[in-house]
């Protein structure tokens, strides 16, 4: 029996690299998409660190998900080599940006959307026709907890991931009966080189400065302390590929799942608004959050 064929974008580092290695070790032939195909050293070293099953392999594939022509050409080359077959496509390429809406330019938001949403869309457009013809396939998108809950200062990034979530959910309904499964994997904080490079822009308007500082001190620090490894995340992607009846969503981080449970029973959004506002609430001098006194409330001293 021929090994399954996979395409993974963003395979040169982070989650994409970990997913590529996990799929290869599970017996796939993986076409590892990356913008700079001349620099796959980290990926090849990871692949070489343990023997692969017979017939499994990793092939480096030049692909810039920000370009229609690059994605179409790269996927066409794989389909030509495999007899019009791709079993799994994983859109891992990502672009992270954290900033206040007043700092963010339209170009900032557009760049984020072009990679995180339109880049994934380009992959979908390239692989799905072949999957539909074969009546089988799985298209996996890397979302985020920020694609489900709007976090302070994550506006551009959250917009791209909310878009992916909605698009994937629509496609899942359209293609399930044809044997093509659309799946999103939703990591929480992940320790990758990309995560290390993401920094909040530090020049918000004066009124927002304490809110920004509180978010960095409380929420960003908490995220850093609870990060998963890329390999831990990759295990969920492998489940999405191998589960006989895959779910629409796989969430990798239990802390994020707890926040999401609030949203799904919060029909007017008040609970989520309170939880996310608390993430960036300025601190008082004694280290507690500043809170407005309720009207008519009484102060009590101990």
Structure description:
With about 300 residues, this protein is an alpha/beta fold. It has a single domain, classed as Rossmann fold, CATH 3.40.50.720. Helices cover about 45% and strands about 15% of the residues. The longest helix is centred in the middle third of the chain and has 29 residues. It is globular and about 65 Å long. Belongs to the short-chain dehydrogenases/reductases (SDR) family.
CATH superfamily: NAD(P)-binding Rossmann-like Domain
Strand order of the biggest β-sheet = 3-2-1-4-5-6-9
Order of helix and strand elements from N to C terminus? EHEHEHEHEHEEHHEHEHH
Percent of residues in β-strands: 5-15%
Relevant terms:
302 residues, alpha/beta, Rossmann fold, 7-stranded parallel sheet, two-stranded parallel ribbon, 10 helices, 9 strands, 13% strand, globular, disordered C terminus, oxidoreductase, oxidoreductase activity, NAD(P)-bd_dom_sf
